[in-house]
Amino acid sequence: MVQGETLMETLLIKERDKQADEIFKKVFHKQLKSYTDVIEMSKEGITKASLMDFVRFLNFSPDQFARLLPITLRTIQRYSGKQRFSPTVSEHIIQLVFLVGKGIEVFGSLEKFMSWFNAPSQALGGNVPSDLVSLKTGTQMVMDELGRIEHGVYA
């Protein structure tokens, strides 16, 4: 438990985000203990090497993944492996980890989630979920839709 964090908050992150926690271990080689850890990781910055590990985990090309971020592929290419992204970009990458984790929980596998993630969704106004997540609002819309699917509420 982290100072200023309740036991309930610590337990909730473990219970809610099991898949995201597994991705954090595989990609960032860190155990997700609390949302405070997420804030610290964002402030510290995600390295390009860790980002590329996440890209490989998703089986995306760098170009495909760059479309999910609020920066261009060219900007990503200019970074060295150990160079860190800004807190804003790092936070976005971390939110994508949570999104993918939720998608795996809801659909049962990365492959099934990716199939949904890359297809138009009537509930999202006919938009393709992956086209929405380069912005925070779009990421939240997709996360909300995953929650509705998880609970059997289809719009």
UniProtKB/TrEMBL annotation:
Antitoxin Xre-like helix-turn-helix domain residues: 37-97
Domain Antitoxin Xre/MbcA/ParS-like toxin-binding: 104-152
InterPro entries: Antitox_Xre (IPR011979), Xre-like_HTH (IPR046847), Xre/MbcA/ParS-like_toxin-bd (IPR024467)
GO MF, any single term: DNA binding
Pfam families the UniProt entry points to: Xre-like-HTH (PF20432), Xre_MbcA_ParS_C (PF09722)
Protein name (database record): DUF2384 domain-containing protein
